[in-house]
Amino acid sequence: MNNPVSQAIHSAAAAHAHAIEPRLPMKLRIINLIVILLPFISVGAAIYMLWPFGFGWTALGLLLGMYVLTGLGITIGYHRLFTHKSFETGPVMKTIIGIAGSMAVEGPIIGWVADHRRHHQHSDHEGDPHSPHTHGAGVWNILKGAWHAHMGWLIARGTKTDLDRYVPDLKRDKIVVWLSKTFPLWVLISLAIPTVLGGVITMTWTGALLGFVWGGLVRIFLVHHITWSINSVCHIWGTRAFDCGDESRNNVVCGVLGFGEGWHNNHHAFPTSARHGLRWWQIDTSYWLIRGMEAVGLARRVKVPSPERLEAKRRKRDAA
Question: What would the pLDDT profile of 201-212 be if each residue is shown by its tens digit?
Fold first, then answer.
């Protein structure tokens, strides 16, 4: 396709002034691993220490349930459906998936997609909104880049993504426009659901409070941290099966915790693929659910790369 949208998503800039930094030394890669695992270890420790007074089976169920619902809303909805159009679905499922993604509290669909399409066009070069590799050489600059890619870019002063350039298709989609405009409503509902359920299940105000804390606030923290780790860790630490012209990497930790999003090098090699875990052992929960939706008629035109395309991309890497 040669339309502006596909070019914005999948084409690289013709020339880039910044060279990609060399691979991080093992010491810094280990630090990155600790950074991604520490919050989860801390939450696990808090659960253990607070059980059964500040945590319990109800809070655990609400935490996991809301994490899965909103995490898949981001991976299947915001990313694979709205950004890359790796499959199609009807208006009802589009709305449901869009609501689930909005409840992850990562911003309205239109802005999120615009930033991500811009990331793909300029991946790890000037113009990428959250690359860790455009901050210069040296340990300090590498750490600055990792911080910027993880969350710093959300508060830094930078160039605003041009919506007319990157999401003209979504600006014409009435469902997406409505979901984006009503984003604050879905944020409130994402906090209200675990709060109400916690209160009703336990029939106590304490249960409602714990539902709000664990199914609401802690869940948002975990979903955000995993999403941000795809931007930072998966461009620093992991393996590369394909040559994509950037530093995207497959990371098994992010692959599991991020419902398949951590097979990031695979994704950058084949952006429109609904399947990110391209090997049998690469767990891709999001793709499994998309295939399940396809099996019952809720998804169609599910895109995956052919064996020939996979091999051609590998040959290109080996020849480089």
Answer: 999 998 998 999
